Amino acid sequence: MNASFRTADTPPDLTSPRGDAHHYLATHESIGGEYGLYKVDLTARAAGAKTHFHKAMSESFYVLSGELELLNGEKWVTGRTGDFLYVPVSGLHAFKNVTDEPTSMLMLFSPGAPREEFFEGVAEMSQRGSEELNEFSVRHDSCFEEDFDSDAV
Fold it and tell me: Assign residue 122 a region: left if phi > 0, alpha if psi is -120 to 50, beta otherwise?
């Protein structure tokens, strides 16, 4: 297997209608599922992700620039450039940009999962309604807070 190289000026792999950009740095397919690494650029006042958890993977956030509100499972904290948040398997978390400036972060999933399909489909599923969105999210190991059963974890 050969190394892979991606230049900093590579365009985003996905840009949302709002302008949020996802850069697929290490995908499930490209590195055999070891982990998933994504650079996410959020616009000012971006809604981010509501409170959820993953049953089979941890997620980590590293703030590259700007400020990012992060739910650490108990309370909202403000992540600034260089701050890091690790969320273990089944840990409740969320994120959003509440500022008037853009923010950029790295998101790391371990083990890797094919998150690209989730990123690309979540906006469309959100417009279809809560039942379809819930089925789509569960299929991609993103369970909402109301689904959390501490006895099952």
Answer: alpha
